[in-house]
Amino acid sequence: MSREIDPAKRESLSVARVVLTSLLFFLPACVAFGASDPTPKASPSRGFAEFVASLRPMAEALGVSRKTFDRAFAGVAFDPRVVAETKRQAEFTVPIWDYIAAAASPDRIARGRAKVAAVAPWLDRASRTYGVDPGVLVGVWGLETDYGAAGGTFDVVRSLASLAFVRYRDTFFRDELLAALVVLNAGAVAPRALVGSWAGATGQTQFMPSNVVSFAVDFDGDGRRDLWKSLPDVFASTANFLASSGWKAGLPWGFAIALPKGFVLADADSARPAPFAAFAARGVARADGRPFPAEGEARLFLPAGLRGPAFLVTANFDVIKTYNASTAYALAVALLGDAVVNSAPVPDSWPRTDGALSAAQVRALQTGLKAMGYDPGAIDGMIGDALRAAVRKYQEKNGLTPDGYADVALLNRIASGR
Ligand code: CA
Asked: Among candidates 264, 362, 262, 273, which has minimal Cα distance to 311?
């Protein structure tokens, strides 16, 4: 978790997740052995030891003791696996309904309820202290590490040092490595117990080390900020991170809605928020029959177009995306949490028979839209908000229902230049 991107914390859990991960983290992989050492490919080990030694003054300036530093790097060698991870290519895409079905499965919902029952007072207290929806805390916990069961097995110091050594993403991982040393220096976790994703996200809700330093909270009062073993600390730290990222207390992330018959959809419905009252006036209602919030605003979110489930989402939905920029991820967190904490049903009315576009087809769609002057974002084969917005604009301009959903028919139409 980082405010820009967390390039990793995703290698665990389901197949859907693994794939999504590689989709999400396809950063311009400026991976090069290189900037500092012209020939480390031949023998990274010597250069690696020199690199580690070069960090000592920086660590000392941050208050890291000599003993912490030596213990952190004892026996640590360069790990080529994490560099390989940065180059992994996405070969296919997962339809959002398959992603949601895996992320918020009946099994995971049931296990979440059992887990939460045991710690409900702490969850409630963390939620009230930071003003963050308890369902979202549980959703993040469930998706990030399957409620603590799958926090990753990579040695964080080794992974970060390897990524920093090859200067993947410039100095980002070096700085995270220094933050990890600060975390170790505090003593809540031992060096070899500091494990996580290949890119160094760690703890039960997968914080990058710099976020452990900035946002972790000792909520159970034992004197340690423990994101590995203390659930009170995990809930409070996650709530603190989300609150610091802009979560507005008292505002839901959103909810499933029912659109009235004959609802006339405009591109602006999804592009810009409007008051709940304005949606109510157009006959939009919550799917669960409860009233809208008295105040606040939201925008329409139709992840699979008008024939799939419809949602209103608020600014808090976007705050979930500070954890992971994927819209599908944010929706999965929200739906899993609501199912566990509020017994809400997971909407399932997806247009499954459509099939979903392959990565190559999405790329063709992006290329076609771009050639027509629309802005579909990067030509990367992934369906994201920029692509949905470009599709809606195309649909609106061409007299089609602007629901932002691209199926094969739409792709064919655009590919033929119409
Ligand atoms: Ca603690």
From this structure: 273
> Is residue 284 one of the residues assigned to a domain?
no
Nearest to 162 by CA among 55, 57, 82, 43: 82
Domain assignment of residue 67, yes or no: yes
Q: Whole-structure pTM over 0.85, yes or no? A: yes
What mean pLDDT is reported for the chain?
89
Contact between 123 and 235 (Cβ < 8 Å): yes
36 lies in which domain range? 7-87+146-244
Give 224 Cα–ligand 1 centroid separation in angstroms: 4
Asked if 330 and 11 touch (Cβ cutoff 8 Å), the reply is no
What are the distances in angstroms from CA 138 to CA 84, 179, 317, 336, 364? 32, 26, 15, 8, 38
> Tens of pLDDT along 159-169?
999 999 999 99
The whole-angstrom separation of Cα 334 and Cα 143 is: 10
Q: Are strands 310-313 and 297-301 parallel, antiparallel or unpaired?
A: antiparallel
Please tell me whether residues 238 and 369 are part of one structural domain: no
Distance 80 CA to ligand 1 centre (A): 34
Residues 234 and 373 in one domain: no
The number of folded domains in the chain is 2
CA torsion sign for 182, 77, 192, 238 is positive
CA of 107 to the centre of ligand 1 (A): 30
Among candidate residues 212, 244, 276, the one where a domain is terminated: 244
Distance (Å) from CA 232 to ligand 1 centroid = 7
